[in-house]
Design goal:
The chain is mainly beta. It has an 8-stranded antiparallel β-sheet, with no helix packed on it. Strands 25, 27, 28, 30, 35, 36, 37 and 39 form an 8-stranded antiparallel β-sheet that branches. Strands 15, 16, 17, 18 and 19 form a 5-stranded antiparallel β-sheet that branches. A hairpin with a 2-residue loop joins strand 2 and strand 3 (43-47). The protein is globular, with a radius of gyration of 24 Å. The model is unreliable at 1-18 (pLDDT under 50).
């Protein structure tokens, strides 16, 4: 009888999951900008921009558009992506992922220079090809559209432009056509084309990727136009009196995808604000249902707005393993969620010499410097309230060398809890870097070379702390979140919580674990 009851309970639970209504935005929290999505059968694949972080362009997989699991990166080799000299304004911009005839394509742009390129693979969980450079044009936000065995490149350069290309070589075939420049908002960008009910629909983002961002759409019976704007444009925006107090702002840079059941969905970027219209976690990936009747214009989530808690019919939900919040450095390889600044020197990261520890070799390059290879490894901040903790053995540091944990927004904007060796002694410091000012808020002598270091965040402040026993943490400093916000710094990325080592190249430091806990 117990077995019958258990089977009945499991069947009911499975049915509830399958019929689940609603979900929570963002579906990819933290720095996951410029989402692009495609479907292959029952599977969805999504990519995001990475700018100066490496590996480049993460690849995610989902069955329901809500639960995403990272399965790899498109750009994992320096031969694909050389980030020498890149800072938080440079690197990989706005990828698009598309699938055609058994092959996945990711097309993107490298800045500075606005050089378009693409890579391809038959297996998105594996390695991608060497880049095919599109040498005959430049701009930003390229996209592919496939039809009847032909490939078309869309891109932005004042206008939205289109030309057929040879997808094997990247060479242009035929003429270049101007399609549309949107409603007149600045920076018309992120073009994607979809064919439905005999129309070609051209989706754009306008207004710049700040508070005034929005999404517009136009259509034509012919691929090359002329395109007629939707009378209800913009079809997605929070730049309105109605949504001025929403915690979600900056919605734009969208992509549409149909599901196996015939429903349509939109992914887009946006950000959750701290306080008054400032954000530190970067642009994130949001999801919305789309009603798209035959021959009609698409309607996003009934009124062109989004919410944190979305109350709507979903696809049958298929949860995936949650991203681990703790890395004990015991697997012999780094989880996919870790990122490096620019191209790393992999020899500076050692998971073998001391089992269960990450050994990092210092470099003379510091966290204050731009565009150079430094010893730094980080993961995205995904919630306002969190604490990130590590245990450090600094016994092999040389005098003058430093190591620690940082809330890092940019080379000149970060908050660090560091261990420093000086005159053979060890000290813990709270270091606040704001623009041209670098300030040691507090320094405490340590009785040992081993110490717990922590960075915490809440809706108003970051806090820097240390502990000798891992239980009782002593606060060294606090600082306002706004000095790490995009509105203060500019740029396009979000805060990373990172480990670093700097100073004498003979110095090494061992990290026992990295633990990241949030309020969710």
């Amino acid at each position: 009888m117990k077995r019958v009851f258990l089977f009945f309970w499991l069947a009911c639970a499975a049915a509830v999951v399958g019929m689940a209504q609603g979900f929570r935005n963002p579906v990819l929290p933290g720095f996951h900008a410029d989402p692009s999505v495609c479907r292959v059968g029952d599977d969805f694949y999504l990519v995001n921009s990475t700018f100066q972080f490496f590996p480049g362009v993460p690849v995610y997989h989902s069955k329901d558009l809500i639960h995403w699991e990272q399965i790899g990166h498109c750009l994992t080799r320096k031969s694909q992506l050389d980030l020498t000299g890149a800072d938080f304004l440079k690197g990989v911009y706005a990828p698009t992922i598309r699938y055609d005839n058994g092959r996945f394509y990711m097309v993107s742009t490298i800045f500075p220079g606005g050089r378009h390129f693409y890579v391809w693979t038959d297996d998105p969980t594996g390695e991608w090809s060497e880049p095919v450079e599109i040498k005959w044009t430049s701009g930003c936000d390229p996209s592919f559209f496939f039809e009847d065995g032909r490939c078309y490149l869309l891109w932005t350069n004042e206008y939205i432009r289109i030309a057929e290309i040879n997808v094997e070589t990247g060479e242009k075939i035929g003429e270049e056509h101007l399609l549309w420049s949107g409603l007149g908002g600045r920076y018309p960008e992120a073009p994607h084309i979809y064919k439905k009910d005999g129309y070609y629909y051209l989706l754009l983002a306008e207004g710049g990727t700040e508070h005034g961002h929005y999404v517009t759409i136009a259509r034509s019976r012919e691929l090359t136009g002329p395109y007629t704007p939707c009378p209800s444009n913009p079809i997605l925006t929070h730049f309105s009196q109605k949504m001025e107090n929403s915690p979600i702002q900056g919605l734009g840079h969208a992509d549409l995808v149909d599901a196996p059941d015939g429903s349509w969905w939109m992914v887009c970027l946006g950000y959750r604000t701290h306080g008054y219209l400032q954000h530190v976690m970067g642009r994130e990936t949001f999801l919305a249902p789309v009603r798209w009747d035959e021959g009609a214009w698409p309607v996003v989530n009934r009124d062109g707005t989004l919410q944190i808690d979305m109350n709507c019919k979903t696809l049958p939900q298929v949860p995936v393993p949650e991203e681990p919040l703790r890395d004990d450095f015991a697997e012999g390889k780094q989880p996919l969620y870790w990122s490096y600044l620019c191209n790393p020197e992999y020899g500076n990261y050692d998971l073998k010499s001391r089992k269960g520890w990450l050994r990092m070799r210092a470099t003379p390059t510091t966290v204050d410097e731009t565009g150079k290879t430094l010893t730094w490894i980080g993961r995205r901040q995904t919630e306002k309230t969190f604490h990130a903790t590590t245990y450090v053995d600094a016994s092999r540091l040389k005098d003058g060398a430093e190591a620690g944990i940082t809330a890092y927004a940019a080379p000149l904007n970060h908050y660090d809890t560091r261990i420093v060796k000086r005159d053979g002694k060890y000290f813990v410091q709270a270091v606040i870097r704001i623009g041209l000012i670098s300030h040691v808020e507090k320094e405490v002598a340590l009785p040992s070379s081993k110490v717990y270091l922590r960075v915490e965040g809440d809706p108003q402040l970051y806090h820097l702390s240390y502990s000798m026993d891992g239980k009782n943490f002593i606060r060294l400093a606090s600082q306002d979140y706004r000095y790490l916000s995009t509105e203060t710094l500019g740029g396009f990325v979000g805060v990373h919580l990172a480990l670093f080592a700097q100073g004498d190249a003979e110095s090494v430091v061992d990290f026992d674990y990295f633990d990241y806990q949030t309020d969710l």
